[in-house]
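Lab notebook, bench 4. The sequencing result for the construct came back, and we need a structural model before the next group meeting so we can plan mutations. Quick request posted to the team channel:

Model the 3D structure of this chain.
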Amino acid sequence: MFGRVKTCKLYPSELNLRLISTDGQSQFDDFMAKHHRRGALRRIGHELHYVVIDEGEWIALISFSPAALKCAARDQWIGWPQPYRTDRLRLIANNSRFLILPGHHYPNLATRILSACRHRLADDWLEHFSKPLLLETFVDSDFHLGTIYRADNWVYAGDTRGYRRVYGGYSTHPNESVKFVFVKSLHRGARRILCAPKLPDAYLAGVEKMRLAPTDCHSLLEYFESIDDFRSRQGRRHSLACVLALIAAAMLSGARGYKQIWVWCDELSQANRRHFRCRLSKGKRHVPSITVIRNVMLAVKPDELQRRVNDFTARHFGTPREAVAIDGKTLRESGGEDQRQTHVMNVVGHDSGFCHAKKVGTLPVKGYEEEKQSNEIKFFIPALEQMEIAGRTVSSDAMNTQVESANHVVERGGHFHFTVKGNQPKLLEAVQIWHELEVKGKNLKPGFVEPAEKDHGRITQRRIWMTEKLNGHVEFPHVKQVFVVERIVKDPKGKDPDRCEFAYGITSLSAEEATAEEVLCANRNIGLSRLHTMYSTTTMRSMKMPLRSAVDMVPRTWLACGVLH
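Done. Here's the predicted structure in token form:
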């Protein structure tokens, strides 16, 4: 009758939160029909039903259903365009019913049930359907205020307009009571992921993988044929272009890791193997073994591979015109006899994680920090020269906040978001004075406040203030706005003191070209640092430098080079 059991501490005693199976649906519906104002819910699409039991007695029922097809308040809060909404509604679950049975209205019971469901729903929804990112619910304003959802830190997104679904579409006039719309993120970056051009692999469950046409197979072969075969002639049975094309096609189709790639190749029909020009022997086409696939993936140079894959994706799918972040990483323990360490500057897309370009050089081991501060600009401009930046926004840390960097970006038709620190003392002083006199002194209202998010036991919230008053008064070219970002980190348990951090920055975009919310999102590079590190690490491997974890990172190297973007 019941599914898996999860125990949670709730008042008045230890209660069991159970997932209802098919056998318990009728009893669940009977309780809903008898005690809930709107009655039992009609079965539509994916649904999960839970019951809370105390000492063998049902005391509460709660159900989750597919998200509403259209909800202006929710969609505006997320900020996604219509094509994304259609494809990604499966990542949202709707708390469609919540009933506490008569005689069991104990203090804090409702919020504790919501908390227990929220922590369990991610696994249950993934097991049955896909991985959820967001919860939503609608509260009838004529009967309720949504107090339990507010107490559980759900975000009030707005009100509905009173329209409802009817046969063939929607009602022409509002004939329903207005409902409050509440949302709750199950992931710290839920809105960012839902609005991203490319979903992370973890949220692609249930999505049809890409299918390659025969012309695409031939195109892959053409792009990889220009790569010189680095393998020994002895024992070579499969052409390098064939092996690379098979690996790329397998990963485009969703394969991960050496074994999955080989299984994908092994399941190809003879007709498909002919498209890839696989080795012909005794009238049959043969695919490379898992050992050949692994050895090729280990030995091929990521830089050369990246150029070919970038050309292929740009020709067939277009290059994403997204904002990019540029950052440099120095590879420790990479110094040779000349006592110089490898330094890699990567240009990575904010949304897709696509590595658009990179520049590799060296810096001395001794006096590294001093020379990095004076010479990193030599990596910044050559890295950007490898790509088209017209119409793009380039963000960078304070190390690259240099006059030469700003001039290069703007002269090529791009825009910049630069962080300001002590390497530009006069610029930093001007922004700090405005912050003290205007923001703090006059208690200015922030231009945008990011919703508080809880992650790793901490509650984080960011606010941003922007102004054009300093235009022409700072000694830095092309500045249209300066901004101050406040980051507040709180420990809900009270074990650690609250932290308040301020970051300063400049942008070449005017107030009409970029809102405060857009600038704040553009400067949120969470996760990009790890991508920069991965790209730099794979570059070190391609230069045949010692790296213990290089073998484990090879499949991710292929992903990083743009095969799936």
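Confidence is low (pLDDT under 50) at residues 1-10, 537-557, 559-565.
Will bring this to the meeting.
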